[in-house]
Specification:
Beta Polymerase, domain 2; 2 domains
Length: 288
């Protein structure tokens, strides 16, 4: 009988708590992400995210034998979160994933002293280990979307310039038949497009409008016309399809950036935008 996600993650949590209780160096641990949220809670495909505070960070990052105390590990690797925090990603037997973000306990103590709430706690967090009773000092009083910075002129221009720079590069790679290179760089301009979409929705619906992060639940918070354009902005691994997707991406970004520039009264690099956009569109007949 296949094990359910509820049973597996319940057992993992209990195993980790028992392990942590016997480790003097583990001072605190918190579950964040979908398995602590009430808004968009975990489904059967969700993993588990644990933030660990310890006096021996290097051990948990450099070794993986400690994971045997928690479950049957298939593979484990060290990387960084999107915010640059050290993280160990783990795949357990059955295809279940448990990720540990690993911090020094000094980080926890500093946050407790200054009553600083980690940004990834705001949507939901559960305390599972708290030996020094510091957890209450960094708990949000209510769960809500984390605050995001307002759109600055500098950030707007940086995203805009990088998008057009990257779009021209991708177009040239597609024209020379370098599909793999183009596809790899496509992620870059899509990240700039996503940022522009998030900003656009906030100028339409207000600074408090929840755009989540990394495109999560985008079908719920983005305008229908943007969704239609996005459905055409990801091409298959061939020249024509990828080119058409690039054209759609360019048109969408151009429209959103213009609206944001007008609303915020920010200068827009029109010369750059028109030069690159016209150059790409002028080469369409070569592809077709």
């Amino acid at each position: 009988m296949e094990q359910s996600d509820i049973v597996f993650y319940r057992d993992i949590e209990q195993n980790f708590i028992a392990f942590a209780e016997n480790r003097e160096d583990i001072r605190a641990a918190f579950i964040i992400g979908s398995r602590s949220r009430k808004d968009h809670p975990a489904d059967q495909w969700s993993d588990m995210d644990i933030v660990l505070y310890t006096t021996n960070s290097s051990y948990y990052l450099q070794q993986q034998d400690w994971l045997d105390n928690i479950g049957a590990v298939l593979c484990s690797c060290v990387c960084q979160t999107a915010g640059g925090d050290p993280e160990r990603l783990n795949l357990f037997q059955g295809g279940w994933q448990v990720d540990f973000v690993i911090h020094s306990v000094d980080t926890l103590r500093n946050m407790a002293e200054t009553k600083t709430i980690p940004n990834n706690f705001f949507r939901g967090v559960r305390v599972i280990v708290d030996k020094d009773h510091l957890g209450k000092e960094i708990m949000p009083t209510q769960f809500r979307p984390p605050q995001t910075l307002s759109i600055s002129e500098t950030a707007y221009l940086q995203v805009t310039n990088m998008f057009w720079f990257g779009s021209l590069y991708i177009a040239k790679q597609l024209l020379r038949g370098e599909l793999w290179v183009a596809k790899m760089r496509e992620y870059d301009i899509k990240s700039y497009l996503l940022q522009m979409i998030e900003w656009h929705e906030k100028i339409v619906f207000g600074d408090e409008y929840d755009t989540w992060h990394a495109g999560r639940f985008i079908c719920e918070w983005v305008d229908e016309d943007i969704q239609v354009a996005l459905s055409k902005s990801f091409g298959r691994y061939n020249q024509i399809d990828s080119w058409n997707a690039l054209l759609t991406t360019v048109d969408l970004f151009q429209k959103l950036s213009e609206e944001i520039s007008h609303k915020m009264q920010y200068p827009r690099p029109v010369a750059l935008e028109m030069e690159v956009s016209d150059w790409i569109k002028s080469k369409t007949d070569i592809v077709e």
